[in-house]
Amino acid sequence: MIGLVIILLLVLFLPFFVKQVEHNLEVFLFIMGIAAASISGMMSLHLVEKALVDPINITLAVLIAGLLCKWLQVPLEKSILFLIKKMSMPIFLALTVIILGLVSSIITAIIAAIVLVIIINVLPLDRKAEVRLTVLACFSIGLGAVLTPIGEPLSTITISKLDEDFFYLFRLIGPEVIPAVIIFGLLTIFLVKPVESSCGLESEQKTESYKEILIRSVKIYLFVMGLTFLGHGFEPLINEYIIGLPPALLYWINMISAILDNATLAAAEISPAMDSETIQAVLLGLIISGGMLIPGNIPNIIAAGKLNITSKEWARFGLPVGLITMAAYFIILLVM
């Protein structure tokens, strides 16, 4: 148990304090996953096979969607310019947030974030409006991507640990997630006040190379593989200290997802021994709070990195939106 606690603390905090770990997170998590599975006695040929197979679907989805995004970038940009001439800007922005959120479970959160960057690069808007649009869209993408196991690593790991079917998460949290995606889209009409400007977010408008697409796909494979080992390695710790906690407490504890990658937390917390109410509370706490700050979710990291959004800019808008959403869902799901 002591060994697992030490590994958990290393996984949660080393990426913040050691730059080499932050820049090589996939390799670090793979090593920590092997260590956790070995120390806990969970390492077996079955687990190795599972760790090799589980990342395949999401890796292929990221690779194929990345190639399509590269090949279709120019037509996409032309389509965006055409659409903003045919409809009002508020409606276009709302539809952007809703559609990216809903399709992220198919094209993956990573590709949805890249498409978002392409769209924002085309829009001649001021910086404040574009920052707010980016944050709301990443909340939407982070929520929608969880509905299938190919959407993002969190959903891949959850399905793997629970050994459930492809549409399990859609059934479990779809009724909560889909309305939230639509609400985030509608919020852009009221919270994003676009002003035509040439001083928007500064970013390099370039098409990704095949090498970048391939490297990203390999990293995703290694990332999910490491999380598979990590999740199963932490099972004794989960069974001892997590399973007995009430869903409401787990929901708020998972606000730490704002500063820690939510896929890592899902690997550490979720267990097949949990009932559906607890799993629902854990997942919603992770995916909602994951949008509050840049480190909380993969779409945030990609969009903020490519658009040069600072942590302060993100937090100024993302924290209040996330806290209000957390409180609303707490009342609806766990109090009423």
Please describe the biggest sheet, giving its number of strands, its sense, and whether it closes into a barrel.
none
Mean pLDDT: 85
Helix vs. strand class:
mainly alpha
SSE series: HHHHHHHHHHHHHHHHHH
> Beta-strand level of the residues, as a percent range?
under 5%
Per DSSP E runs of 2 or more residues, the count of β-strands stands at: 0
Low-confidence stretches: none
State the share of residues found in helices, binned by percent.
Answer: over 70%
Number of continuous helical runs: 18
Shape: globular
Amino- and carboxy-terminal Cα gap:
37 Å
Radius of gyration, whole Å: 19 Å
Considering the chains and any ligands shown, give keywords for the structure.
336 residues; mainly alpha; 76% helix; 0% strand
Structure description:
The chain has 336 residues and is mostly helical. It has a domain at 2-193 and 208-244. Helices cover 76% and strands 0% of the residues. The longest helix is centred in the C-terminal third of the chain and has 25 residues, at 311-335. The two termini are 37 Å apart. 48% of the residues are buried. The model has no long low-confidence stretch (mean pLDDT 85).
Q: Quick gist of this model?
A:
With 336 residues, the chain is mostly helical. The chain contains 18 helices and no strands. It is globular and about 60 Å long.
Write the layout of secondary structure elements.
Elements (H helix, E strand, L loop, with lengths): L1 H16 L1 H5 L1 H16 L4 H9 L2 H16 L1 H14 L2 H19 L1 H14 L4 H18 L8 H10 L5 H24 L18 H24 L1 H7 L5 H7 L8 H8 L6 H14 L8 H10 L3 H25 L1
Helix pairs in contact: 1-3, 3-12, 4-12, 5-8, 5-12, 6-8, 7-8, 7-9, 7-11, 8-9, 8-17, 9-11, 9-17, 9-18, 10-12, 10-15, 12-15, 14-16, 15-16, 16-18
